[in-house]
Write a structure and sequence with these properties.
Layout lengths: L2 E6 L2 H19 L3 E5 L11 H10 L3 E3 L4 H15 L1
Parallel strand pairs: 1-2, 2-3
Helix pairs in contact: 1-2
Length: 84
């Protein structure tokens, strides 16, 4: 099984790198699973809906979230919003 794991996406620079290079990496390595560590994608403080959708559009299959209580709560709220 081929797994592509992208380390910590941090702020605007990380978002740009993921949306630019993730599609290219997926074409080159043809992973079966793509995981992005996105817990700091929005200015180093979690991830918001806009950033999540951008990364999803770039080819994300799974997103790794932080385990701190505040981030977990924000993440759960985001998931509820995305599903509605």
């Amino acid at each position: 099984m081929r797994i592509l794991f992208v380390g910590d996406v941090m702020g605007n620079v990380g978002q740009t790198a993921v949306t630019t290079y993730l599609p290219k990496l997926k074409r080159r390595y043809k992973p079966q699973v793509t995981i992005v560590n996105g817990e700091n994608a929005t200015r180093g403080r979690g991830i918001n809906q806009e950033v999540y959708k951008d990364i999803l559009t770039a080819g994300l299959m799974s997103l790794r979230w932080a385990t701190t209580p505040g981030i977990i709560m924000k993440s759960l709220i985001l998931l509820m919003v995305l599903r509605s």
